[in-house]
Amino acid sequence: MKRKISLVVLFVIIAALGWYLFIKPNDYLVSFTAKTFPGTINRTIKNWGKSMATNAPLKEYGVLNLEQQLKFGDTVVVYNWKIIPITDSTSKVKVRIKDLENSLMNKILIPFTSTILEKRSKKNLLDFNQFLNEHLKKFKVNVVGIDELKSTYCAYIEVKGLQSEKAFDMMKDFPFLSGFVKENNMKVNGSPFVEITEWNMENDSIAYNFCFPIIKPDSLPLNNEIKYKKFESKKALKAIYNGNYITSDRAWYKLLDHADNKDIEVTKMPVEVFQNNPNMGGNELEWIAEIYMPIKDSL
């Protein structure tokens, strides 16, 4: 009987050791809690990767899971990020780390000594946490609830690009669009807004209409770049964003989380109404944008 028990224990030990050395997908695990929602962490991981000395190829499996390759000298290390929502404003982050060239040796050494992989990983994740916390100081998002976007006629420009380029493109196009409206004596009917028409969350690219709301005149002046349309009224989840409009998309993710928690079906085609002109500068935390995520049933 004792022999059988010993054989079972030995088998379990060998199986566990075999799994640890040859099957376990990561060499090292780092976990921490972040005081923000998943979309902000997702975007910060991507920006942090770009800030590293070498380009970091990245695969995204939804907002909550990312795989990032970082190169240190001749060593390629994979960071598998998993973001776990805890509350509306808190998330758990787990980073599973694997050295593609020295995985087996790391697994052997890590229980007994502090390896280069372990030291580097701790430093990198501390740097990331600081990078994230500095970013969180630069904006605020407050979900208001269900509201209604009013209908209006508008003159608009069609634009395509990356989410991160939206604010720069707006600043470039604003003088042209506002100048055209003024030169043709059209009456402005509210604040300029962006209507997202396509959003690829994997590569962070968007297509949108940059719109100037106007009262429709009897005749519409022609221009090769400027088009006209009626923007229809619709119900939407609303948030107030304060901060640089470069990162106003953080509110998009916050609204998606809110919609998911409340079982509200939305379009993932946000509308942003801007109350400040970025060209005028000032304290960015005092800039205001109303962010709307249209509700499907209202369309």
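The record above closes out task 2.4. Task 2.5 opens with a second protein, given below.
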Amino acid sequence: MTGHTNATFPSAPDSLPTLTGRVIELRPLCAQDAANLVAAASDGELWNLKVTVVPGPETVEAWIAAALAGAQAGTVIPFTIRLRESGRVVGSTRFWKVDRVNRKLEIGSTWLAASAQRTVANTEAKFLMLRYAFETLDCVRVQFTTDVLNAKSRAAILRLGAKEEGVVRRERIMPDGRKRDSVRFSIIEDEWPEVKSALLHRLQSAG
């Protein structure tokens, strides 16, 4: 793509985008989403997961505050995942590690209520985010990082068309104190047209 000097990464929370698909909508995260996020996470008691961090009743306010602080700093673009038909919040995701100078970012902190898993929601969310990253922000690289123990997530990222780059040892410390090894994946700008075509085919096949 051309024109990268004009690419604009939103920084202030009131300038964050809404990304709309056929089934789901990604809306900017706000403090008022706390109850809806806890309700979504309650579907499967996701805060008990050891391989990712999902907000629960005791942690949701701090979780949102940290995300919004990142948005204010311009390093995070956080979303709630909502079903368009009902408006129900079924999870959350975000861009983070936003690097304007090098035109790259990471998609992460993605989680879905148990009832929304194994549906089109995750594929459509990733498609909307990748399209925005490459076609609006003009990124040259989008990366993903997941727990080395999270086989389901690793397989899902590979299905998107991302390339595995290797293991980052002791990449972060989890809430329970575990020193997590992570697996990193990426999609670069040259690969986006092929990845986009495959994701559109998957979405169309899902009806």
